[in-house]
Amino acid sequence: MNAATPSAPRGLTPRQKRFAWIAAGLAVLATAVGLVLYALSSNIVFFFTPTQVSRNEAPQGRAFRVGGLVEPGSLQRQGIDVRFKVTDNVQAIPVVYRGTLPDLFKEGKGVVAQGTIGADGVFKASEVLAKHDENYMPPEAAEALKQAGHPMQSGTVKAQ
């Protein structure tokens, strides 16, 4: 009787080695794609109009941008603390900001503020951007004002 002798352990075949390398490469690629998507999602800041913010369409507890015009008569300065309202001529959102405002920041002019909305409905800005010349307004803000029926006079404000 011939007893079955256990065969000696064999190494991976070339096909198995190739499969292992492909699987490892795909795992590394999937990890890299996942990290890139995570980094992009945490850095994307969406733009909302004051009307959208007042309808609770803006994210709660996450940074976003709100833009429109600085409502005339709403600007209040107390040292480096600034309060004003951003309007699209339909709704106005109160904004608080601590810091130095851009030189071009004025009532009735275009502005984009980045920050978060508080439970009290006040937008806490971490950054305030003003238009940089007489013929520029951020495209999103210009479109929001156009939809709200704000007259866009040629030569004063136009979207770029």
Question: How would you sum up this structure, described in words?
Answer:
The chain is α+β, with helices and mostly antiparallel strands and 160 residues long. It has a domain of 101 residues: OB fold (Dihydrolipoamide Acetyltransferase, E2P) (Beta Barrel). It is 28% helix and 26% strand. It is built from 3 helices and 7 strands. A 5-stranded mixed beta barrel has the order 2-4-5-7-6. A hairpin with a 4-residue loop joins strand 4 and strand 5. The radius of gyration is 28 Å and the shape is elongated.
Q: What is the level-2 CATH architecture name of the domain at 47-147?
A: Beta Barrel
The stretches of 5 or more residues where confidence is low (pLDDT under 50) are 153-160
Give the helix proportion (percent range): 25-40%
List SSEs in N-to-C order: HEHEEEEEEH
Taken from the alpha-carbon principal axes, the silhouette is elongated
Query: Which secondary-structure class do the elements indicate?
Result: alpha+beta
At the fold tier of CATH, the topology name of the domain at 47-147 is OB fold (Dihydrolipoamide Acetyltransferase, E2P)
Count of β-strands: 7
Strands in their spatial order, largest beta sheet: 2-4-5-7-6
Mean pLDDT: 80
Q: What Rg, in angstroms, do the CA atoms define?
A: 28 Å
Q: Quickly count the helices.
A: 3
What is the assigned CATH homologous superfamily of the domain at 47-147?
Nucleic acid-binding proteins
**CATH first level of the domain at 47-147:** Mainly Beta
- Classify the beta-strand content into a percent band: 25-35%
Please give the alpha-carbon distance between the first and last residues: 92 Å
Task: Tell me about the largest β-sheet.
Answer: 5 strands, mixed, barrel
